[in-house]
Amino acid sequence: MTSETMKAVICERYGSPDVLEIRTVPRPVPAKGEVRVKVCASTVNRTDTATLRAHPFFARAMTGLIRPKMQILGMDFAGEIDMLGDGVTTFAIGDRVFGMSPDMFGAHAEYLCLPANGAIAKIPENLPFHQAVVGEGAWYANGTTQVLSEGQRCLIYGASGAIGTAAVQLAKAQGAYVVTVVGTRHMDLAAALGADRVVNYETQDFTALGETFDLVFDAVGKTSFFECRPLLAKDGIFSATDLGPGWSNIILGSFYGATGSKRVRVPFPEGAPGFIQKLANLMSQGKFQGVFDRRYPMDKITDAFRYVEKGQKTGIVVVDVC
C-alpha cells in the first residue's frame, strides 16, 4: 500500500453484512476549511445497520434509491488530525479529536475528511481513542432529553443501549429526576449511570408505577404512546426512537404537531457541531462517559454488524481501525 491509499469498508449495495468488502481506495485530501483525521476507532450502530439494510424503505430518498450514495459507512470517529486544508486555524496536526460525520459518513476507513467547523472536538485529556467514539447514540438521546429542565421528571425505557445509557446521563446533566426501566442484568448499570430509581420490567409493570412524568422516552422502540399514556403528566411528552406499532409514533407525532402540541415526538437530532462540543465539555467535567459492549478489528466488521443487528448490545460496539 502506498502513502496515497487507505483501507476502507465499502458498501456498494444494500443488503446483509455480507455485502461489505474491505478494499484499498484513494486516500482523501482535505478541501479548503477541512481537516483530515487518521481514524483510530469508529463504531457500528443502529444508524449503520439501518442504512445497510435501507430500513425503513423511505430512507432511500436520502441514502440512495437504488444503491447507497455513501459507500463508506460509519458516523462515529476518534483519531488524530494529520492534514489541514487551507484556512484551518482551529486545529493543529497531531490534535486528538472525536466526533461524527452525520451527513457523509465515511468513518469505516483509515482516513476521513470533514469540515473543521463540523461535528468535531478535541478528546478530553488521557481518554483512549476507543472510549471517545460516543457521538451517535448521545446525539439521538439529546434530541429528546434537551427538552428537560431542572427538577423535571423523566422515565427512560431501555436504558442499556447506546441511546439509553446516554439519555440517562444527559437527563441528569439537565437536572432531571430520572427513573429507568431495564432488565435484571442491566439494573446495576442504570444505577451506576446516575438513575434515581431503577425499575425491573421483568418483575414489575412499569406502566403501573403510580407516578407521572414530564418526559417518557422509549430508547429502544419497544413500547408505545398508548401503553405509556398513564405515565404522562398533564403536559408530558412521549418520545421514541422507533416508528412504533403501525408507524403510530410518526402518525401521532404528525397529528399532535399539527395541533401545536408536542405530546408525541420522534427525536430528530440537530446541531451536531454544537452538540459534540457540549459532549466534550460534559466528558471533561466527568458528567458523561461512554458505555462499551465489545470491540472488533476492522477486518471483522461484518461480525460487528451481525452482533448489532441482534438488538442485544449494551452500550456501544467499537471498531478498531488503526
Automatic annotation (TrEMBL):
Superkingdom classification of source: Bacteria
InterPro entries with a match to the protein in the record: ADH-like_N (IPR013154), ER (IPR020843), GroES-like_sf (IPR011032), NAD(P)-bd_dom_sf (IPR036291), YIM1/Zinc_Alcohol_DH_Fams (IPR050700)
GO function terms (MF aspect): oxidoreductase activity
Sequence ranges assigned to domain Enoyl reductase (ER) in this UniProt record: 15-319
SUPFAM superfamilies, alphabetized: GroES-like, NAD(P)-binding Rossmann-fold domains
Protein name, entry field: NADPH:quinone oxidoreductase
The species this protein was found in: Actibacterium pelagium
